[in-house]
Specification:
Elements (H helix, E strand, L loop, with lengths): L7 H13 L15 H25 L5 H9 L1 H33 L6 H18 L1 H25 L17 H16 L18 H27 L9 H7 L2 E2 L3 E2 L3 H29 L9 H14 L4 H10 L1 H23 L9
Helix pairs in contact: 1-6, 1-8, 1-10, 2-7, 2-8, 2-13, 3-4, 3-13, 4-10, 4-11, 5-10, 5-11, 6-8, 6-10, 7-13, 8-9, 10-11
């Protein structure tokens, strides 16, 4: 099994990248378009509650991954079954990100390129990085997330001449029920998917800093996503609501003195870097989790077959962007709530009832 260690700071940056992931180009809650950047903070608050639930569970079982906790709480049979369900969740999360990667490149840059020609090279890179371990993934991410945040900050200056504050108005002109539902959707995706880090937290070299690292990572990601959405609404106005990739489109409108134009490369780079990290973490969790379920000595031989499974999910379950958007609108929230809230809550409740573990919690 992977014996690599990462610092709390690296965990923070990994959580930022994972959370930004695919949401940066394909946001959910598009029906609340003008207010989405504000509702993002409500979703972040709810997402932090989900994260605290998982962190409390981790503190009761320090040094244990989510799947090892399942076996302690539910026993070997039921515990393995619940872990297999989580494997499907990780697989679908990674496959969905890979599908957006394919669709965005096919519709913007490589319009005549076959899907496999786009996906196969990426899968090989993902498999190689996964086999190298969490330390290499974390070190690679440090430069990628810094460049992403830097590009977002530069974007604020680039859109000054086309930003219209009136596009942000009116504030909260939605029914209260719709605001609440949108905030729950945002809490599930992108924030709730961070339950995946329960497979990585034991690799942090100082457990006492895990809580702060997770908190900083989610807040940092929330600020980045809210800023991007704020700029998109201010530039595009209501028309952004009907666009498939609104972030990509508003960068196309940038024109500074006929010199800086067509800067859609910025959102492409942001997604290619953040989407890459999100997918490789899903692949890592899949491989490590499967090795733990079946008591294998190492996870590395599983990286390639699971890379191919991600490819299959991206091609078969999310064959088109219209079906993917329909999934996000109609299924994602209910599906995600099961894994980000209900199952962790049930696991923690049973652990408390059974008095597990029968020793002092980690500080």
């Amino acid at each position: 099994m992977d014996q690599g260690k990462i610092s709390a700071g690296q965990l923070t940056l990994l959580i930022m990248s994972f959370t930004i992931g695919s949401w940066v180009v394909l946001p959910t809650g598009i029906q609340a378009w003008q207010n989405l950047w504000l509702i993002m903070f409500m979703g972040l608050g709810t997402g932090l509650l989900f994260a605290y639930l998982s962190l409390f569970l981790f503190r009761r079982f320090p040094g244990k991954t989510l799947f090892e906790i399942h076996e302690r709480v539910y026993g070997p049979v039921l515990g393995k079954f619940i872990s297999l369900c989580f494997l499907w969740f990780f697989l679908q999360t990674g496959g969905g990100t890979l599908a957006i990667f394919k669709t965005l490149l096919r519709s913007t840059v490589f319009t005549a390129t076959p899907d496999l020609a786009i996906l196969v090279p990426l899968i090989l890179i993902l498999v190689y990085g996964c086999r190298r371990g969490i330390e290499v993934i974390a070190r690679s991410n440090q430069l990628l997330i810094m460049s992403t945040v830097g590009l977002v900050l530069v974007s604020i200056l680039l859109v000054v001449n086309i930003f219209n504050p009136e596009n942000l108005l009116p504030f909260f002109n939605l029914p209260f029920s719709e605001v609440i539902w949108t905030s729950i959707s945002l809490a599930v995706f992108p924030f709730g998917q961070n339950v995946l880090f329960m497979m990585i937290l034991p690799r942090v070299n100082r457990w006492q800093k895990v809580n702060g690292a997770v908190l900083k990572g989610m807040i940092g990601a929330g600020l980045v996503l809210s800023t991007i959405q704020f700029l998109a609404v201010g530039v595009l106005g209501k028309s952004g609501q009907i666009l498939v990739f609104p972030t990509y489109e508003f960068y196309r409108m940038i024109n500074i003195a006929q010199f800086l134009t067509r800067l859609e490369l910025i959102p492409l780079l942001n997604f290619l870097t953040m989407g890459f990290i999100k997918t490789i973490l899903c692949l890592y969790a899949l491989a490590v989790g499967t090795a733990q379920v079946f008591n294998l000595r190492t996870y590395r031989p599983l990286a390639l077959p699971f890379g191919l499974f991600l490819l299959l999910v991206a091609e078969r379950i999310f064959p088109s962007i219209s079906e993917h958007m329909r999934y996000l609108e109609e299924v994602q929230t209910f599906f995600g709530l099961i894994f980000s809230l209900l199952l962790p809550m049930m696991t923690l409740g049973i652990a408390l009832l059974r008095g597990l573990p029968r020793r002092r919690m980690a500080p």
